[in-house]
Write a structure and sequence with these properties.
About 75% of the residues lie in helices and about 0% in strands. The chain has seven helices and two strands. A two-stranded antiparallel ribbon has the order 1-2.
Length: about 240
């Protein structure tokens, strides 16, 4: 039992450290891509080169590895970073919750944005395209923010209480798929014909399923009990207690 408990603590510590450096890397990558997009737009460019995005992704991956090796377990992606004690009451407690909420939204949005940009870069490269259009980058940034708030609605108890995990997955999947399909059709991510829409739907399902399975594997490897994306909410509750 002692060995199992120790392994669980080591796994959680490893997962927390990985979570922190992953958050920092995704924020750096997102900021860099948006900066390149803005600069290119000012200079009359139409997109950001796939090569540039690849270099940024690799660089941030190296930053993530270096940060993981140099982090002491808590990189401070919470109110603790700002010197607000968790035990404080009144204004301090409110500020802690507010800052934790802002950090969580920002981190989640950056991760979603980073993942979608990398995915689009791979698809464009396989399609023989050399860049990702600025309009696509802007729309993905908006979609990342939208997905973050839908995730908060679906996978926390803030808005929905006592709902099964399967129904929570449906609450998340339906609006996200609908908005991605609508934006994809508007910005011509895929041909307007039925075949193009079906292909988009299949790719979306594969990516969604892959991300879900990836989360399951990640949390099992970390030794933390995980119940889908709802585990992120429970993890934060554990930290508060």
């Amino acid at each position: 039992m002692m060995i199992a408990s120790t392994e669980g603590k080591i796994g959680r510590k490893f997962a927390d450290r990985l979570e922190d450096v992953k958050a920092y890397a995704s924020m750096i990558f997102s900021g860099a891509v948006m900066l390149f997009a803005v600069v290119n737009a000012i200079n009359g460019g139409e997109g950001v080169s796939v090569r540039v995005i690849t270099v940024l992704a690799v660089s941030c991956g190296l930053v993530m590895i270096a940060g993981f090796r140099g982090t002491s377990g808590d990189a401070g992606t919470s109110a603790r970073k700002y010197g607000i004690k968790e035990t404080e009451e009144g204004r301090g407690a409110f500020m802690k919750k507010f800052i934790d909420g802002v950090v969580a939204v920002k981190t989640s949005a950056c991760m979603i944005f980073s993942g979608t940009i990398i995915l689009f870069s791979i698809i464009n490269a396989l399609s023989g395209k050399t860049d990702v259009p600025i309009k696509t980058i802007a729309s993905l940034a908006v979609l990342a923010i939208f997905c973050t708030f839908v995730q908060m609605v679906a996978f926390t108890d803030i808005f929905i209480k006592n709902l099964s995990y399967v129904l929570r997955m449906a609450v998340f999947f339906v609006p996200v798929f609908a908005i991605f399909a609508a934006v994809g059709w508007l910005f011509k991510w895929f041909p307007a014909e039925v075949e193009g829409m079906v292909t988009f739907g299949v790719i979306f399902l594969i990516v969604f399923a892959g991300a879900t399975v990836g989360f399951e594997i990640y949390y099992k490897m970390s030794g933390r009990k995980y119940d889908g994306l709802l585990g992120e909410y429970r993890k934060n509750k554990e930290r508060e207690n």
